[in-house]
Structure formats: C-alpha cells, structure tokens
Design goal:
Blueprint: H1 2-13, H2 18-30, H3 40-68, H4 89-115, H5 120-138, H6 153-174, H7 179-202, H8 204-209, H9 215-244, H10 252-255, H11 258-270, H12 278-301
Helix pairs in contact: 2-3, 2-6, 2-7, 2-12, 3-4, 3-5, 3-6, 4-5, 5-6, 6-7, 7-9, 7-12, 9-11, 11-12
C-alpha cells in the first residue's frame, strides 16, 4: 500500500517536467563555471530548490485544474491524479503545503550559503523572489483569479523560467550580471514559453469550453502557430548570434540544439490535429534541457 501511494505522488509530481525546470539553472551556472568563485555547493542547492518549486507548481496545477473541472474527459494530455480520483482535494492540498515548506527551506539554505551575513539586502531580495516563485507556482491555476486562466501564464513562465532562473543563478554565483547571462535568459525564457504554448495549443479547445483563456485560446489556432514560430525563431536567433561571437573552442556544441528545434518547428507549422502536438511537448522540453547541458559543457571546456 505505501508503495502504491508513493507511485501516485510520483505521478502527481510529473517527473517529465523537471528537466525543463532546471535548464535555466544549468545555463546560468554554465556561464560562470570557469570563474574562480564558482561554487558547486551553490549549484547543487539551486538544482534542488528549482526542482522543489516545480513540484509545488505541478501539484498546484493538478489541484487547481481538477477542482475547476478543467481536467475532464475532453482533456487531451495525460490524466492527472485528482482527475483520476487517485488523490482527494484535501490530501493533495496537504501535499502542496508540505512541498512548499521543503521548497522554502531549500531556498533559505541556498540564499544563506550564497550571501551569509555579508548582504542582508541581497538576502531579502532573493527571499522575496522565493516567495514570489511559490506564489506564481500555486496561483497559476488555483483560486478564482488564477492568472493562467487570464492569458498571463506565458509572461510568468518567461519571467521565472528565463529571467529569474538564469540571471538569478548567475548572480547567486558571482554577485554581478552580464550581457551573456541576459542573452541566455532570453533564450531559455522563449523556449520555456514555447513548451507552455504547445501545451495550450494541444488543450485549446477543451480550455476554451471551460473558460480557461490561455494565450492560445485568445490567439486562435493560426495565431498560436505564428506565436510559436516567433518564440522558437527568436530563441534560435539569439543563441546563434551569441555563440558565433564567442571565442569558445566548442561553441558549435550548443548550436547542435538548433537542429531538433528546426524539425519541431516544421512539424508544428504543418500540424492540423492538436492532439498530435503532445509528443512535441516532450521533444521541446528535452531539447531545451540538452541544450542547457551543451551550453554548460561549451563554457566548461572553454
């Protein structure tokens, strides 16, 4: 019985989403891995904190869409635990609380390790970002004013998966910003939004039927495709220009990630059945993750 419950919670945590959640952390740390002040301890704490935040988001998303009835028989994607009756709303809510506590403890450990008692201003700023991350993770779908139901999910994903993830991890390591970190934050932000847009394109009709106004619903089928095109091309363009300007011996490694993105883009443009977009979600998420690994390796090797 305990094993069965563990399997349910693992399913609720949605492990397949975790690689994307740490991609920005990998990139931000990769940009400064050669610096003398680089800390592997900080890197490890960042990864654990990002994973905890993502699990909070996944549980809250399951809860929010479940109680609103958004996850119903018409949903195209995998069945959620609340939708499948594997967990009750009250039990899932307790799980969200417990994982939130763990996430905040990890965040405090991370911030304390990064700044100690040297700068209370930085400590408070990053603590504030941690609370904002928790708020964003929960209220994407939870509550009457859930921002994911008002077409704002893309903006928040861009901010937290791109800007906060890359720039935040870079600053935690070196206590400065750089144009390189800003460029890569834009790349990760655009790619992360592309993953969300794929999800929303797939669920566009069922979301519209229950009043969930994602950007894909607002833009319509064709508009969402053009939007997706802009996201992928923008990310690829910034990445290409950035790396051909670098003096890295293995700069070409990161550019390999553009190949599967190009193939994916053609698939989306040609798509006529939203249901068939589900496999593309995994492809783009994993491509983004492997791209982050390639960027890390490129800077590690110099």
């Amino acid at each position: 019985m305990p094993f069965k419950k563990t399997k349910v919670w693992i399913r609720a945590a949605r492990l397949r989403t975790l690689p994307l959640s740490i991609s920005g952390i990998v990139v931000g740390n990769g940009l400064c891995v050669q610096d003398a002040n680089f800390s592997w301890m900080l890197f490890s704490l960042m990864l654990l904190t990002a994973i905890a935040f993502q699990i909070v988001s996944n549980l809250a998303n399951d809860f929010g869409d479940g109680v609103k009835g958004t996850d119903n028989v018409h949903r195209v994607g995998p069945k959620r635990v609340l939708q499948a009756g594997l967990l009750s709303p009250s039990v899932l809510k307790k799980g969200i609380v417990w994982v939130t506590v763990v996430a905040l403890i990890l965040a405090i450990c991370l911030i304390t390790t990064a700044f100690g008692s040297e700068s209370w201003i930085y400590f408070l700023i990053f603590l504030g970002l941690a609370f904002c991350s928790i708020w964003a993770a929960i209220f994407y779908t939870v509550g009457e004013n859930a921002y994911g139901y008002r077409g704002l999910g893309d903006l928040f994903v861009f901010i937290f998966f791109g800007l906060v993830s890359v720039l935040g991890s870079y600053f935690l390591q070196l206590k400065v910003f750089s144009t390189a970190a800003i460029s890569m934050a834009l790349v990760l932000g655009f790619l992360s939004v592309a993953v969300l847009n794929l999800n929303n394109m797939r669920d566009r009709e069922s979301d519209a039927n229950v009043g969930k106004r994602t950007l894909a619903v607002i833009l319509g089928a064709l508009g969402a495709k053009y939007y997706h095109y802009v996201l992928i091309v923008s990310a690829g363009g910034i990445l290409f220009v950035f790396f051909i300007q670098q003096s890295l011996s293995f700069y070409w490694l990161a550019l390999l990630g553009l190949i599967p993105l190009g193939i994916h883009l053609r698939t989306v443009i040609m798509n006529e059945d939203p249901k068939s977009l589900d496999p593309e979600l995994k492809k783009v998420a994993l491509t983004t993750f492997f791209l982050s690994i390639l960027i890390f390796i490129s800077f590690s090797l110099g």
